[in-house]
């Protein structure tokens, strides 16, 4: 099809993720802004790529459509997609510039798989395939309530109440990856307007700017396909843990440079080669099993799953323990209030903290795969713990013959990390778990303070 190639604005965009549990607080802060009424409640964004493309860091080719949907179940979503669909073709750059490339209309094609005319499209002579799509229920507010319609659209706040992510495999089958939680966007041609709105509605940092967090579920799915879980199920959790010094800066870029230069390692994900995510961890105690460490994990979409760890022991710098945890909380975690979930498990809440995390999966020459994580954790009282973790996650070739083989391998990684000159004085081996650390700071009940 012919493209119009019209850049509609070069605007500033700020995007902040936050936890669904905090949605009432955010809604209260938006009361002073004028709502923008739209005819549809949901925005459907279809993400296309060249079949051989392996990079998510520069721009996105997307088709944007609008609808009012009642059900997000895959069957209902597939039915919607396979109806006649009209949308806008857009090229979206990372800094916010959006170029309209024209409209597209896909004829209806009912069936049990995604419409082939929707799955593969040709734009400017290039074949593109549908890799994933997101459905968001969103509302808008104007920063310039007395301006023209164009001014109101250019200067606005957009709130995604919920975001559902799906992928489409080469057989045109649809798979639901999970919910991503709410996000707020501020859009304006000027930095000053964006900063003013931020000062009004995000003075406490409740909403967090997290570059590449929108790729979290997609990249986690790609990792699960690359490294079969069966290659790690036969083993306990095996990891090395390090504390980051209080005033030290150790970034994902620093660690990726070390991995490439010193080991060397192969990254298991396409660029940006890392998963950015956020969680809340509720540190608990099980009165019936005092020896275990139990934690309730909360996603940004307010889905919960239990994590239970026990029988921990150290072998040199390597920590070994049995861990029971869900890998599908984003998709099928428990819903409800925190209190209700705690009562269901009959657990007592001790403390809670938020964790911002960057995960870098990599593979060594022997095929063993590891997950390098940078964890920045803080509770409501300001107690902060920053750690690095290197965890065995399986093998792309074949399962290890024994835990000793993994110990030898991971100790080689640990030695390289601790002797890497740029990290000296910044990191040190740690024996402290997050559960243990934040249990030290159990909040004192208000009644005890009076």
Notes on the structure:
By secondary structure, the chain is of the alpha+beta class. The protein has 13 helices and 22 strands. The radius of gyration is 23 Å and the shape is globular. The N and C termini lie far apart (72 Å). Residues 446-450 have low confidence and may be disordered.
Summary of the model, kept short:
β15 and β16 form a beta hairpin. This protein has helices at 23-29, 74-81, 116-119, 149-154, 191-201, 216-226, 230-233, 252-262, 329-332, 338-345, 403-419, 434-439, 446-449; strands spanning 6-9, 12-17, 34-36, 42-49, 59-67, 85-93, 98-106, 120-123, 126-142, 156-168, 174-179, 183-188, 237-244, 266-267, 275-285, 293-298, 304-315, 318-325, 348-363, 368-379, 384-395, 427-429.
Using DSSP, what is the number of strands? 22
Oligomer: single chain
Helix content: 10-25%
Biggest beta-sheet profile: 12 strands, antiparallel
Whole-number mean pLDDT: 91
Distinct helical segment count? 13
- Which word captures the global form? globular
Task: Tell me the distance between the termini.
Answer: 72 Å
Instruction: Show unreliable segments.
Output: 446-450
| Fraction of residues in β-strands | 35-45%
Radius of gyration: 23 Å
Kindly name the structural category. Answer: alpha+beta
What is the element layout, followed by pairings?
Layout: E1 6-9, E2 12-17, H1 23-29, E3 34-36, E4 42-49, E5 59-67, H2 74-81, E6 85-93, E7 98-106, H3 116-119, E8 120-123, E9 126-142, H4 149-154, E10 156-168, E11 174-179, E12 183-188, H5 191-201, H6 216-226, H7 230-233, E13 237-244, H8 252-262, E14 266-267, E15 275-285, E16 293-298, E17 304-315, E18 318-325, H9 329-332, H10 338-345, E19 348-363, E20 368-379, E21 384-395, H11 403-419, E22 427-429, H12 434-439, H13 446-449
């Amino acid at each position: 099809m012919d493209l119009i190639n019209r850049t509609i604005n070069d605007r500033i965009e700020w995007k902040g993720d936050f936890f669904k549990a905090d949605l009432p607080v955010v809604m209260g802060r938006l009361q002073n802004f004028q709502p923008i009424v739209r005819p549809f409640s949901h925005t459907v964004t279809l993400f296309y790529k060249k079949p051989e493309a392996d990079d998510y860091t520069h721009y996105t080719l997307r088709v944007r459509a609008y609808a009012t949907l009642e059900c997000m179940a895959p069957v209902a979503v597939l039915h919607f997609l396979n109806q006649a669909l009209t949308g806008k073709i857009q090229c979206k750059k990372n800094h916010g510039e959006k170029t309209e490339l024209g409209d597209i209309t896909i004829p209806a094609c009912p069936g049990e798989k995604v419409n082939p005319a929707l799955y593969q499209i040709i734009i400017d002579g290039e074949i593109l395939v549908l890799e994933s799509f997101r459905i968001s229920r969103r509302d808008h507010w104007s920063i310039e309530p007395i301006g023209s319609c164009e001014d109101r659209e250019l200067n606005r706040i957009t709130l995604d109440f919920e975001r559902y992510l799906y992928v489409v495999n080469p057989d045109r089958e649809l798979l639901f990856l999970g919910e991503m939680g709410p996000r707020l966007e501020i859009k304006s041609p000027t930095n000053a307007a964006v900063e003013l709105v931020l000062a009004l509605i995000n003075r406490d940092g409740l909403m967090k700017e997290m570059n590449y967090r929108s790729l979290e579920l997609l990249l986690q799915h790609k990792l699960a396909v690359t490294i079969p879980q069966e290659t790690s199920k036969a083993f306990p959790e095996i990891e090395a843990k390090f504390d980051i010094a209080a005033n030290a800066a150790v970034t994902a870029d620093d660690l990726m440079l070390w991995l490439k230069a010193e080991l060397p390692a192969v990254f298991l994900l396409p660029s940006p080669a890392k998963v950015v995510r956020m969680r809340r961890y509720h540190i608990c105690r099980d009165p019936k099993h005092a020896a275990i460490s139990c934690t309730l994990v909360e996603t940004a979409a307010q889905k919960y799953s239990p994590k239970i760890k026990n029988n921990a022991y150290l072998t040199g710098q390597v920590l070994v323990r049995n861990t029971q945890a869900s890998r599908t909380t984003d998709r099928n975690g428990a819903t409800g209030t925190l209190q209700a979930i705690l009562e269901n498990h009959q657990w007592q809440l001790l403390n809670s903290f938020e964790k911002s995390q960057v995960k870098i999966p990599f593979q060594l020459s022997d095929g063993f795969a590891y997950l390098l994580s940078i964890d920045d954790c803080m509770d409501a009282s300001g107690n902060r713990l920053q750690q690095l973790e290197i965890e065995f996650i399986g093998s792309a070739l074949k399962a290890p013959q024994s835990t000793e083989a993994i110990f030898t391998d991971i100790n080689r990684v640990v030695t390289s990390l601790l002797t890497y000159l740029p990290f000296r004085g910044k990191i040190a081996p740690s024996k402290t778990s997050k559960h243990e650390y934040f249990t030290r700071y159990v909040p004192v009940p208000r009644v005890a303070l009076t």
